[in-house]
Amino acid sequence: AQTVTQSQPEMSVQEAETVTLSCTYDTSESDYYLFWYKQPPSRQMILVIRQEAYKQQNATENRFSVNFQKAAKSFSLKISDSQLGDAAMYFCAYRLGGTSYGKLTFGQGTILTVHP
Amino acid sequence: DAGVIQSPRHEVTEMGQEVTLRCKPISGHDYLFWYRQTMMRGLELLIYFNNNVPIDDSGMPEDRFSAKMPNASFSTLKIQPSEPRDSAVYFCASSFAGVATEKLFFGSGTQLSVL
């Protein structure tokens, strides 16, 4: 079974600074997708960024970017120019390719605090 | 669109009672998912539907749990009888397979407390 591990239960960053959240995963498959979701205090999960395993180029979405290291099975999230609204719990997630649409395996989450 | 709507937002019940959680997906979405979040197990998929048909219920923990989707705009997750270990936040999410970004839209969840 696939597993997703987030080794940082909590992280903190100063406003306007950069922070990187770590994620590793374990799979024997070659076709899969990786995601970062954000869960603010409102509880509603929000997609931050998505990466297809077959793409070598790292995904970026405005201030959010990933460092996808397929051989190392690592998928870290970098948040640049951190804002107070970035404070939330962040989850890394994995999905097997093919017909497993939407079947996500989540990591345990990292709580991000942003200091003004 | 109002997004995925779940009700109730909070539910407190006593052990042995029946609990029904409700979800209204975003109009036009063809996938619906039920996830559960606990401190011990994190977020885990319980069941999902495609075009109102249950596709994979392997995450449903026990026969006490059941889910239905009678039409494209409504789904329920029922626990009967409820137990204290069922206490968790239950999320409903919907998605449209035609979207390249494969974005799941989550509701705000139902916080269930079984006493």
SS element count, helices of chain B: 0
Strand proportion of chain A:
over 45%
Whole-angstrom Rg of chain A:
14 Å
The percent of residues in helical segments of chain A reads under 10%
* Topology order of chain B in helix (H) and strand (E) letters: EEEEEEEEEEE
SS-based structural class of chain A? mainly beta
Total number of helices of chain A: 0
Q: How much is the radius of gyration of chain B in Å? A: 13 Å
Describe the main β-sheet of chain A briefly: 6 strands, mixed
Oligomeric form: heterodimer
Instruction: Work out the helicity level of chain B.
Output: under 10%
**Number of DSSP-assigned strands of chain B:** 11
**Poorly predicted spans of chain B:** none
Q: What's the pLDDT, averaged over the residues of chain A?
A: 94
Beta fraction of the residues of chain B?
over 45%
Structure write-up:
The complex is a heterodimer of chains A (116) and B (115). In chain A, 0% of the residues lie in helices and 52% in strands. With 116 residues, chain A is mainly beta. In chain A, strand 5 (32-39) and strand 6 form a beta hairpin. The radius of gyration of chain B is 13 Å and the shape is globular. The interface between A and B is medium-sized, with 18 and 21 residues.
